[in-house]
Amino acid sequence: MLQIQKYTPPLLVASYFITSVCIYTVCTAKLLQVFWFICLCTNFYVAGNSVIEAFMGIAPLRDARQASARLEAKEWQFPTPDEQLLHLDLIIVAYLPNEQDIILDRVRYALEQIQYPADKLSINVLYNTPHAIEPLESQLQGLAEQHPARLRVMSVPNSSSKADNLNYFLSRGLAKDIVAIFDCDHYPHPYGPRWAMERLTTRPGVDIVQGRCVIFNAAHSLQTAMVAAEFDKIYAVSHPGRSALWGFGLFTGSNGFWRATLLTELRMDDSMLTEDIDSTLRALSRGACIEHDMNVVSYELAPVSLHALWNQRLRWAQGWAQASLRHLRLAWTGKEVQRSGRMRFGLLSLLLVRELSYYLITQYVCLVASVVITQFPKTAHAWAVLIYFQYPVSQWLFIISVSCLLATLWITHRAKSEFIDPWMIVVFSVTYPVYLVITAVVGLYGHARLVSRYSAWNPTARG
């Protein structure tokens, strides 16, 4: 049965492409025009939505940079006095076999570098492991003994996931005011937690603050460079822009700060592959306010092998599909919690249109492939006409979509982190159409895994 589940997703995806291409090869010219128009209109919507979110993200980024410059000029004297700050439980979650080479470094970094009042900061290391790993576990316990007032190290029994580790901590009643969640590969900026706590202390209506995640091993390879550029687009452009446009933010699994009461009430659902998105949507269903803060920065590792990246993105795709299916009703239900029409449309776009876009993007590829088979282009001009200018209306849709894409990438360039070189943005921009197709294929693969009930969890290898 396990072998059947393992091979069913790739067979389903392959069958999807083969069937689609075959259908298009026998369609009439009129039907092809209809399909072509639908695909281009959808791509135009996706591109237009992306560029609007990008433009909406300019103001939050500008405000964050100005606030950082003002505070640096004041030698990092934050407005709120230390004695008025809330207590912070900073959690480092680890699957020990996968992160045994980095966990000691990250714990020492948190102890030494985080700039927060010592009497109001607790660092909690929550790890699970299928077998004892020595002398590492003893070294971790030794660190806890050296810093008894600031560091807890807990081996979570019977845990098989990050969600189990977090729930174990919450079930023990250890959370006080604010809980910050970090994956083990992260280096929080020394002042990152202080920025988050400034917002949470002075704005009681905010329930969750999600910070910006930056890839710091961008220079390792072309793959990590592309992931780093992608993360800048996501965390510095898309997330804050979506929040400004649609009125809600997202907790993305790491570098997120929760009010302890809300997190304790919701917990994490260990049946969900992306428990972070599920918890976000459950929080929104209760009227929680989630905001993005670009000064709450944390640095993380991109997967260094193609296999690790593939496993990571497949898990994300399947998890997003799983969470979208469960919570799509938020777009139209919710009498207990009032949601604006703007937020409902944003949720519909995020949970439905985004998932459907995988099919429309790949259908465009299948449509082009069918025409190549039946009317193989013999010149470069013929290829351009085939792919982009098959019909008069497609010229305008193509020009507008490309303009939206270039604008989005230009804004990403303005928002890039210190680890991104200009050539990385150029390569990312040139290869972005291919990236969209690959993302769509991965999305389909995630759907196929969900349909076949494939549930194996592959942790992301740390390099």
Automatic annotation (TrEMBL):
GO terms for molecular function: glycosyltransferase activity. Signal peptide: none annotated. It comes from the Eukaryota. Keywords: Glycosyltransferase, Membrane, Transferase, Transmembrane, Transmembrane helix. It is a multi-pass membrane protein. The keyword Glycosyltransferase applies. GO terms for cellular component: membrane. Its main location: membrane. InterPro entries: Glycosyltr_2/OpgH_subfam, Nucleotide-diphossugar_trans. Pfam families: Glyco_tranf_2_3 (PF13641). It is found in: Membrane. The chain crosses the membrane at residues 12-38, 44-61, 345-373, 393-411, 423-445. PANTHER family: CELLULOSE SYNTHASE CATALYTIC SUBUNIT A [UDP-FORMING]. This is Glycosyltransferase 2-like domain-containing protein.
